[in-house]
Automatic annotation (TrEMBL):
Function noted in UniProt: Plays a role in the flagellum-specific transport system.
GO cellular component terms attached to this protein's record: bacterial-type flagellum basal body; plasma membrane
Origin species: Paracidobacterium acidisoli
Protein name: Flagellar biosynthetic protein FliP
Gene: fliP
Membrane topology: Multi-pass membrane protein
Amino acid sequence: MSAVAATPGLLPLPGLDSRLAAGGNSVPWTIVFTLTLLTLLPAIVLSMTPMVRLLVVFHFLRQALGTQTAPSNQVLMGLGLMMTWFLMQPVLLQVDQQAVEPFRHGQITGWEAIERGAGPPKTFMLRYAREKDLALFTAASQTSRPAKPENLPLQVVIPAYMLSELKAGFEIGAVLFLPFLLVDMVVASITTSIGMFQLPPVVISTPLKILLFVMVDGWNLLAGSLLKSF
C-alpha cells in the first residue's frame, strides 16, 4: 500500500503511484547520465571527434615555423575546440533529435538514449576510419567480422578512428613541413657559403618563415584545408 493510501484521512489519487515511480526512476537516470557524460567528456572529445587531427597539424605547424611556444598550447587548444564544435554540429544535432529529446520527454529509458546517441558519432567515425585499422582491431578483439561496418562495436571503431586520424594528421603535417624545411635549407646553405658560422641559421630563417606564412595568409589557408578534409 502506498504512503498516501496509508495516511489516515487521505484518499489515494488515481495514477499517483505510477507517476511517482516514473519520476523516481527518471531523476536518478538523469543524474547518472549527466555525471557520466561530464566525466567522459574530455576522453570523448579527444577520441571521437576531429580534435586529434587538428592538434597534430597545429603541432607540426608550430614546429615548422620554429616559434616553439607561439601560439601557446591554450590558444591552439581553444582553436581546435571551436573548429571541432563547428565540424561536429550536424552530429550533435542528430544526437539531440534521436536520443536527448526522447529521453527528456520520458519516451525512452537511459540505456536506450545511450544506444541511440552512440549511432551518429559511430557513423561519423566510420566515414573516416580506414578499413585496415578496423580490420586490425576486429582481429585483435577476436570477434567475427560483421557483414556491415555499422555493426562493429564502439570498442573497435573508436581506436581504429583514432589511428586513422593520427595518420591523416601526420600526412598533412608532413606536407605542411616541406616548404618551411626548404626555407631552412636555403638559409643554411647561404649562411654557410658566405662564412657566417657564428650566426645560427635558425635566427634568420625563423623571421623569414613567419613572414612567408603571414604573406600567404597561412592561418586562413590551413583552416580551410582542414575543414575541407572532413
